[in-house]
Amino acid sequence: MEIKQGSQSFYIGNEEESEAEVHFVRVGESRIILDHTHVSEHLRGQNVGQQLVKAAVDYAKKENLQVIPLCPFAKAEFEKHPEYQELLG
């Protein structure tokens, strides 16, 4: 399963009608807000959501961005992973 990067998301499938995605919005030069995560029924239970949030976290680290996880799923992932805490903005 390939995770692709769009202009404001990481997704599986195609960008317009993704099978799974974590969507983000840039806020200024130094932050992104994770505002929505979606995983299609047939992909659930395969850690797809976790992989998408990790892709966003890896992107934020690479780009030196802080992350504001507003999406309940992303917020829960940040609470589960202490290593993500350094990115909270």
Automatic annotation (TrEMBL):
Keyword Transferase recorded: yes
EC number: 2.3.1.-
PROSITE patterns tied to this protein: GNAT, GNAT_YJDJ
Enzyme class, broadest EC rank: transferase
Organism in which the protein naturally occurs: Lysinibacillus irui
Protein name listed in UniProt: GNAT family N-acetyltransferase
Superkingdom of origin organism: Bacteria
CDD domains membership: NAT_SF
GO molecular function annotation: acyltransferase activity, transferring groups other than amino-acyl groups
Domain N-acetyltransferase: from-to ranges: 1-89, 2-89
Swiss-Prot/TrEMBL keywords: Acyltransferase, Transferase
